[in-house]
Amino acid sequence: MEHKYRNIIKAVSWRLTGSIDTFIVSFVITGKPVLALSISGVEVFTKIGLFYFHERAWNRIRFGRMEVTEPDYQI
């Protein structure tokens, strides 16, 4: 299980990377830096929220997780 603040930090760092990519792609397609900046500026907020809730949902799913067990002996 991860703390919620870890998910927030992961979401923000990933979104910054994604927004730079979105800006570059938008600029290449439109040729307009202001339009590209506005597109990447809007999507940064929507996708941070989506990523956060996606991470929280996956924290509740046991699929692919390994159980940590305590050793049978005591020191």
Structure commentary:
With 75 residues, this protein is mostly helical. The radius of gyration is 19 Å and the shape is rod-shaped. The chain has helices spanning 4-30, 33-59. It has one domain (4-59). The model has no long low-confidence stretch (mean pLDDT 86). Helix 1 runs antiparallel to helix 2. The protein contains 2 helices and no strands.
The unreliable regions are none
Number of domains: 1
Helix content: over 70%
N-to-C order of helices and strands: HH
CA gyration radius, whole angstroms: 19 Å
Number of strands: 0
Let me know the average pLDDT.
Answer: 86
Q: Which structural category fits the helices and strands?
A: mainly alpha
Which percent range describes the beta-strand content?
under 5%
The number of helical segments is 2
Q: Please give the alpha-carbon distance between the first and last residues.
A: 27 Å
Key words describing this protein structure:
75 residues; mainly alpha; 2 helices; rod-shaped
Short description:
The protein has helices spanning 4-30, 33-59.
What's the SSE blueprint?
Layout: H1 4-30, H2 33-59
Helix pairs in contact: 1-2
